């Protein structure tokens, strides 16, 4: 890999940029890596699986030798379910810290598993805080694990993962992290966080294509997970034990996706690893947010909680603004944005991850400016109710 390989190359003619937090815009090299077939039992593919597991462990910093990486077929939610079902014993109890769709999905997963949980629902975007966790754990000594969503992708909030993990550990609980949309761009050093297990997937900050996710867990937790799982295909211990013994996945792996992911991992390293990747995403965010603010748009979140992954904007109050028309016009200009997920006010989201740099983000802002002009929207300022809502965040 040379520096030229890390250059951002626009997608093929007529293919829009995906300003969505996975699937996202991938490089030509990643797509090209899928143009050959692999035998899943063959030594070449086993070596690829090994290289991928090692490459991912390299991203968690010193102390990684106490951990191992277990890929799991399916999308990210399969991995969340695999993690909860494998590491939480049948008589365990999980404190689920939710502030958006993914936290609520984890709670729903616990319902399906039929295992005990305590849900803290902070609404659309307020961050759970360490002192509340301390309080709850004091009142409910049955809780054994705390599930933290690292970046809650539904609003783009970057949750205070260290503060939350510290509170959990102080009460003697184990920490599980859904770092789906953050891992690879935001540090998740095991030395600092000491999590029992975390999950992420191929099509987020490593910039691969969808098809599998992975669990990174302490080896002693992997050993202890034997017999916990409710599910044959989502049993992390069984997948790990089989992989250790044979070098193979238990059931058919997404071979092309793994090949693409290895190419993506090489590009990630060439860009400077977690630090380099995170820095590009942060520049993407800064340039895009500043440009959008200059047009009158306002972010849902205060500066402090803005992630470099995805940003939520309020829809303008101007009656001439119509989100569906805005979406279509942005798509025509080469950019697929993301509808919002807030319940109280209208919003939309713009992702900062994938094969895009600040040049591209400037084009995104220009496309938004032209689209507003075309729609006859004079100001992108949000309704007063939206700003009222946002004030709650500061409280
Ligand atoms: C993407 C994502 C998931 C998994 O979603 P899938 O659609 O199953 O891939 C889970 N949690 C978070 C925070 C995510 O961003």
UniProtKB/TrEMBL annotation:
Keyword Secreted belongs to the record: no
Nucleus among keywords: no
EC number annotated for this UniProt entry: 2.6.1.37
Binding site for substrate: 349
Domain of life the protein comes from: Bacteria
A Gene Ontology biological process term: organic phosphonate catabolic process
Protein name: 2-aminoethylphosphonate--pyruvate transaminase
Species name: Roseovarius spongiae
Organism placement in taxonomy: Bacteria, Pseudomonadati, Pseudomonadota, Alphaproteobacteria, Rhodobacterales
């Amino acid at each position: 890999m040379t520096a030229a390989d890390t250059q951002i190359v626009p997608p093929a003619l007529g293919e829009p940029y995906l300003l969505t937090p996975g699937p996202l815009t991938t490089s030509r090299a990643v797509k090209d890596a899928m143009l050959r077939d692999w035998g899943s039992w063959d030594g070449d593919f086993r070596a690829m699986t090994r290289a991928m597991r090692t490459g991912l462990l390299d991203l968690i910093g010193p102390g990684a030798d106490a951990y191992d990486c277990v890929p799991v077929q399916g999308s990210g939610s399969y991995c969340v379910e695999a993690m909860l079902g494998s590491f939480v014993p049948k008589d365990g109890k999980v404190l689920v810290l939710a502030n958006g769709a993914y936290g609520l999905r984890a709670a729903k997963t616990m319902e399906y598993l039929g295992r005990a949980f305590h849900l803290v629902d902070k609404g659309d975007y307020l961050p759970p805080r360490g002192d509340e966790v301390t309080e709850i754990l004091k009142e409910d000594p049955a809780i054994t694990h705390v599930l933290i969503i690292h970046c809650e992708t539904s609003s783009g909030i970057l949750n205070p993962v260290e503060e939350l993990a510290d509170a959990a550990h102080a009460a003697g609980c184990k920490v599980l992290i859904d770092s789906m949309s953050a891992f690879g761009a935001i540090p998740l050093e095991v030395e600092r966080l000491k999590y029992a297990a975390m999950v992420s997937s191929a099509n987020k900050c490593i910039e691969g294509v969808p098809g599998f996710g992975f669990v990174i867990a302490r080896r002693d937790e992997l050993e202890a997970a034997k017999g916990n799982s409710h599910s044959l295909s989502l049993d992390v211990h069984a997948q790990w034990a089989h992989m250790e013994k044979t070098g193979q996945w238990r059931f058919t792996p997404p071979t092309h996706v793994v090949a693409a992911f290895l190419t993506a991992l090489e590009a990630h390293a060439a860009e400077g690893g977690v630090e380099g990747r995170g820095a590009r995403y942060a520049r993407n965010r800064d340039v895009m947010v500043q440009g959008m603010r200059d047009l009158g748009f306002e972010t849902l979140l205060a500066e402090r909680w803005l992630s470099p992954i995805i940003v939520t904007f309020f829809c303008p109050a101007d009656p001439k603004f119509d989100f569906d028309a805005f979406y279509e016009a942005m798509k025509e200009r080469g950019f697929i944005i993301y509808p919002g997920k807030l319940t109280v006010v209208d919003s939309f989201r713009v992702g900062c991850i994938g094969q895009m740099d600040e040049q591209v983000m400037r084009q995104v802002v220009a496309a938004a400016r032209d689209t507003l002009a075309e729609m006859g929207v004079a100001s992108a300022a949000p309704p007063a109710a939206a700003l009222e809502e946002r004030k709650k965040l500061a409280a």
